[in-house]
Amino acid sequence: MKPILLGICAAFFFAFTFILNSSMELSGGSWIWSSSLRYIFMVPFLMCIVLSRKNLRPLLNEMRKKPGTWVLWSSVGFGVFYAPLCFAAAYSPGWLIAGTWQITIISGTLLAPLFFETIYTKNGPLQIRGEIPYKGLIMSLIILLGIVLMQIEHSKHFSFENLLLGVIPVLIASFAYPLGNRKMMDICEGRLDTFQRVLGMTLASLPFWFVLSLYGFYTVGLPSKGQAFQSLLVALFSGVVATVLFFKATDMVRGNIQKLASVEATQSMEVLFTLAGELVFLSLSIPAPLSWCGILIVILGMILHSYVSIKNEEGNCEKSVA
């Protein structure tokens, strides 16, 4: 239950990403700076945390072992994840991006065969290739149905081109985030704590962000003070607080595909928090009754998803004992 609660708390802070990105886009800020500044600003925050825990040297030693691997999967997990999300903000409002982002629930589930799961038997731990949890996948589809109902009234007011440019980048991001996160968990194998891993991935993704920043400097110029400040807030709330909470939750269920999918499903709460934030801060109109039906379906889908995951885990435990 604790990983689920951590996942919901992470979803709350992740919602600041969509709200503030929409705010920056409305004020004329470029998606290039919205994305790159977040991770550049994350470094000092995370560095202070890791240094205070005296865990920097073990992290650097771990990164020296496979520097190329760290750069590759950190760039996927952070770069290919966040840059498309910010790009989509230029074509869709925050609530629509947050809603589309929930496809990551299914994306993360479909990635299961690429990883190995730890099963404990009488002869000790056994590594087997993960399988797609189809029952959990059905529950994820229920969550997505709720998301569609929440957004269907709003989507009528946008052109097909805007919807396409707002959806495709988010679909790419939905696969990149769980893929990069899980690959780095496998590489670290529990040798690093959550703060170390987030800092390590942030440092390893800096080449990606520096190249993007250089492109932004020559194409759109420097960011405004307002965009820099809002990017700082995103770095603190979403980049540090939310990422650490989410990675902590996934670390707690590392090696268990069903529980991992359940934790990732909690991110569907982002759309609820984003909707509330835009109602308060961006003067979004009150959702239609159909959207409120979607909210109830999302909550129901999350409950059913967690229930099915727990039942599957209990069944696996009985098989392991046998």
Automatic annotation (TrEMBL):
InterPro entries noted in UniProt: EmrE
One of the Pfam families matching this protein, by short name: EmrE
Record keyword Transmembrane helix present: yes
Transmembrane segments annotated in the record for this chain: 31-51, 71-91, 97-120, 132-152, 158-177, 198-217, 229-247
This protein's UniProt keywords: Membrane, Transmembrane, Transmembrane helix
Superkingdom, natural source: Bacteria
The protein's name in its UniProt record: Multidrug resistance efflux transporter family protein
Origin species: Bacillus salipaludis
Phylogenetic lineage: Bacteria, Bacillati, Bacillota, Bacilli, Bacillales
